[in-house]
Design goal:
The chain is of the alpha/beta class and 154 residues long. It is 50% helix and 14% strand.
């Protein structure tokens, strides 16, 4: 019986190291090093930035504001957060800058209007794109995107 318990413990530890630790490692690297490009203007940017900083998960130095004229500046960033109301007319430019390994989270609160079926179809044609309409869900999707998208060391 002791041999079975020892074997099960070793096997469980091995499975944890192989299965869980890579995801935890990517999350740790993502929270510490990856930049988040926020496509928003004025108060919308400040609100999203304070949401991220107040969660105590993200460092202020890793949050970058992207304005309409600076969309190309986001090409090397691997996580995009777009406030729908501020940048809906620039969706095509953002999708053009977005690489396959880059996550795009579109924050579109319902009180600011709904996305049209054509816009949803356009967004849905790209990988790693999420549409969120609640602030609590937004944080969850950002953390999930940090785990599931690749992290390239420079």
């Amino acid at each position: 019986a002791t041999l079975i318990v020892v074997f099960a413990t070793i096997r469980g530890f091995y499975r944890w190291v192989v299965g869980i630790s890579p995801a935890l490692s990517r999350l740790g690297k993502g929270l510490a090093n990856r930049k988040i490009a926020i496509f928003a203007n004025g108060d919308d940017f400040n609100s999203l930035k304070s949401l991220l900083i107040d969660s105590n998960l993200f460092k202020e130095k890793n949050i970058v504001q992207i304005t309409v004229g600076e969309i190309k500046k986001s090409e090397n960033i691997t996580l995009f957060l777009m406030h729908w109301k501020s940048f809906k007319s620039n969706l095509d430019s953002i999708l053009t800058c977005k690489k396959d390994g880059t996550a795009l989270i579109v924050y579109a609160p319902q009180e600011e209007g709904f996305l049209s079926p054509d816009e949803i179809k356009k967004i849905n044609q790209h990988r790693n794109v999420i549409v969120v309409n609640m602030r609590g869900r937004l944080l969850n999707d950002i953390v999930t995107s940090l785990i599931t998208t690749s992290y390239e060391k420079k």
